[in-house]
Design brief:
It is a single chain. This protein is of the alpha+beta class. It has five helices and five strands. A hairpin with a 2-residue loop joins strand 1 (7-13) and strand 2 (16-24). The longest helix has 20 residues, at 74-93.
Length: 136
Protein backbone atom coordinates (compact mmCIF):
# COMPACT_ATOMS: atom_id res chain seq x y z
CA UNK A 1 0.00 0.00 0.00
CA UNK A 2 1.54 3.39 -0.98
CA UNK A 3 2.20 5.87 1.80
CA UNK A 4 -0.13 8.88 1.99
CA UNK A 5 1.50 12.12 0.95
CA UNK A 6 1.50 14.74 3.74
CA UNK A 7 3.25 18.11 3.71
CA UNK A 8 4.07 20.28 6.71
CA UNK A 9 4.96 23.89 5.84
CA UNK A 10 5.44 26.93 8.07
CA UNK A 11 4.87 30.63 7.50
CA UNK A 12 5.84 33.73 9.48
CA UNK A 13 4.76 37.36 9.79
CA UNK A 14 6.14 39.68 12.50
CA UNK A 15 5.85 37.56 15.68
CA UNK A 16 3.07 35.31 14.35
CA UNK A 17 3.82 31.76 13.23
CA UNK A 18 1.67 29.33 11.26
CA UNK A 19 2.04 25.64 10.49
CA UNK A 20 0.07 24.21 7.57
CA UNK A 21 -0.50 20.48 7.20
CA UNK A 22 -1.64 19.51 3.69
CA UNK A 23 -2.96 16.10 2.69
CA UNK A 24 -5.27 14.71 0.01
CA UNK A 25 -8.91 15.31 0.89
CA UNK A 26 -12.13 17.08 0.01
CA UNK A 27 -11.20 20.78 0.13
CA UNK A 28 -11.48 21.37 3.87
CA UNK A 29 -9.49 24.38 5.10
CA UNK A 30 -9.31 24.90 8.86
CA UNK A 31 -7.55 27.68 10.76
CA UNK A 32 -7.01 26.77 14.45
CA UNK A 33 -9.69 24.04 14.08
CA UNK A 34 -12.20 26.61 12.72
CA UNK A 35 -13.52 26.12 9.16
CA UNK A 36 -12.34 28.94 6.90
CA UNK A 37 -15.94 29.68 5.85
CA UNK A 38 -16.80 30.94 9.36
CA UNK A 39 -13.38 32.28 10.39
CA UNK A 40 -13.61 35.78 11.89
CA UNK A 41 -12.82 38.65 11.32
CA UNK A 42 -13.82 38.80 7.68
CA UNK A 43 -10.79 40.87 6.60
CA UNK A 44 -8.48 38.15 7.95
CA UNK A 45 -10.53 35.47 6.15
CA UNK A 46 -10.18 37.38 2.87
CA UNK A 47 -6.40 37.58 3.40
CA UNK A 48 -6.16 33.83 4.00
CA UNK A 49 -8.33 33.09 0.92
CA UNK A 50 -5.97 34.93 -1.49
CA UNK A 51 -3.58 32.04 -2.30
CA UNK A 52 -6.53 29.63 -2.63
CA UNK A 53 -8.30 31.98 -5.06
CA UNK A 54 -5.18 32.45 -7.19
CA UNK A 55 -4.44 28.69 -7.24
CA UNK A 56 -7.98 27.91 -8.40
CA UNK A 57 -10.68 25.72 -6.89
CA UNK A 58 -9.77 22.65 -8.94
CA UNK A 59 -6.42 22.44 -7.09
CA UNK A 60 -7.29 23.08 -3.46
CA UNK A 61 -10.65 21.25 -3.55
CA UNK A 62 -8.58 18.02 -3.75
CA UNK A 63 -6.66 18.87 -0.55
CA UNK A 64 -7.36 19.20 3.17
CA UNK A 65 -5.40 22.07 4.72
CA UNK A 66 -5.09 22.32 8.50
CA UNK A 67 -3.41 25.53 9.73
CA UNK A 68 -2.36 26.19 13.31
CA UNK A 69 -1.31 29.75 14.22
CA UNK A 70 0.11 31.31 17.37
CA UNK A 71 1.80 34.54 18.45
CA UNK A 72 1.20 38.07 17.19
CA UNK A 73 -2.21 39.59 16.51
CA UNK A 74 -5.12 38.39 14.40
CA UNK A 75 -3.87 40.07 11.21
CA UNK A 76 -0.29 38.83 11.68
CA UNK A 77 -1.66 35.33 12.19
CA UNK A 78 -3.79 35.66 9.06
CA UNK A 79 -0.79 36.72 6.98
CA UNK A 80 1.34 33.93 8.48
CA UNK A 81 -1.40 31.42 7.58
CA UNK A 82 -1.61 32.88 4.06
CA UNK A 83 2.16 32.52 3.71
CA UNK A 84 2.08 28.91 4.91
CA UNK A 85 -0.82 27.99 2.59
CA UNK A 86 0.87 29.57 -0.44
CA UNK A 87 4.16 27.78 0.27
CA UNK A 88 2.32 24.49 0.79
CA UNK A 89 0.45 24.78 -2.51
CA UNK A 90 3.72 25.55 -4.31
CA UNK A 91 5.47 22.61 -2.68
CA UNK A 92 2.53 20.30 -3.46
CA UNK A 93 2.25 21.24 -7.15
CA UNK A 94 5.90 22.13 -7.90
CA UNK A 95 4.41 24.55 -10.47
CA UNK A 96 6.51 27.47 -11.74
CA UNK A 97 3.35 28.98 -13.28
CA UNK A 98 1.69 29.12 -9.83
CA UNK A 99 4.89 30.54 -8.31
CA UNK A 100 4.90 33.32 -10.91
CA UNK A 101 1.19 34.03 -10.29
CA UNK A 102 1.78 34.36 -6.52
CA UNK A 103 4.77 36.66 -7.00
CA UNK A 104 2.92 38.84 -9.52
CA UNK A 105 0.01 39.22 -7.09
CA UNK A 106 2.04 39.80 -3.89
CA UNK A 107 5.65 38.79 -3.30
CA UNK A 108 5.19 38.45 0.50
CA UNK A 109 2.90 35.48 -0.14
CA UNK A 110 5.94 33.40 -1.12
CA UNK A 111 9.01 35.22 0.17
CA UNK A 112 7.63 36.48 3.49
CA UNK A 113 7.99 39.98 4.90
CA UNK A 114 11.30 40.52 6.67
CA UNK A 115 10.21 43.67 8.54
CA UNK A 116 10.28 43.39 12.32
CA UNK A 117 9.58 45.73 15.23
CA UNK A 118 12.40 48.15 16.04
CA UNK A 119 13.74 47.61 19.57
CA UNK A 120 12.81 50.11 22.27
CA UNK A 121 15.59 52.37 23.55
CA UNK A 122 16.04 54.10 26.91
CA UNK A 123 14.72 57.61 27.53
CA UNK A 124 11.25 57.16 26.16
CA UNK A 125 8.18 54.96 25.82
CA UNK A 126 9.11 53.45 22.44
CA UNK A 127 11.76 52.98 19.77
CA UNK A 128 11.84 56.62 18.63
CA UNK A 129 9.54 58.59 20.97
CA UNK A 130 11.26 60.49 23.79
CA UNK A 131 9.97 61.80 27.12
CA UNK A 132 9.06 65.49 26.84
CA UNK A 133 10.67 68.26 28.85
CA UNK A 134 8.43 70.49 30.94
CA UNK A 135 10.88 73.41 31.29
CA UNK A 136 12.34 76.09 28.96
Amino acid sequence: MPAKRVLVVSGKRKTALARAIVKPGMGRVRINKTPLEIYQPEVARAKIMEPLTIAGEDLWRQLDIEVETWGGGYMGQAEAARNAIAKALLKWTKSSHLHRAFIDYDRTMVAGDSRRKEPKKFGGPGARARDQKSYR
